[in-house]
């Protein structure tokens, strides 16, 4: 003992020091039936995931619902490119339909926005060349149409994503029938 610190105990050797046996772990699992009185014993939980209502996807361990929702969600990243890739490699009719619909929706919004921008630019350039402010007002109309289409595209994008993740059949106006023919899923998908 150190005279300056009388309450200090001599240090115990650490576990790996030669000449001392290794220490055994002090924890052992409780015996069966052990627990607080009045409470049932703890249960072991297995995988409680629900089986896919629409079947498996051909893309590994994903469900058709997951692929369908991801087709719409991926439009944020790369527009129609990722949904098109999913459409080309997917074999499940439900997921293939939603991938086709997401591709068409994204492509339609892009095409209309680009066309409205071109028409608007032509009208504005013509108005500037003719030095006419009245003609320039008509250049706003294609931009308003593009804005309305963008809002409608956003609404249908959200609706498609929600329905895809939930495994619901949702056919959009104008492009839904074409997407169903593209996917070859006429009559194969039950609502």
- Average pLDDT confidence is 80
Structural class: mainly alpha
- Series of H and E elements: HHHHHHH
Biggest sheet features? none
User: What is the tally of beta strands?
Assistant: 0
Cα shape: elongated
Q: How much helix is in the residues?
A: 40-55%
Count, helices: 7
Given as residue ranges, the uncertain stretches (5+ residues, pLDDT < 50) are none
Q: Radius of gyration, Cα only, in angstroms?
A: 32 Å
What is the terminal-to-terminal distance?
83 Å
What fraction of the residues are assigned to beta strands by DSSP?
under 5%
What does this entry look like structurally?
This protein is mainly α and 191 residues long. The chain has seven helices and no strands. The chain is elongated. The termini are far apart.
How would you summarize what this structure contains?
The protein is mainly α and 191 residues long. It has helices at residues 64-73, 75-78, 81-89, 93-130, 133-137, 140-166, 176-183.
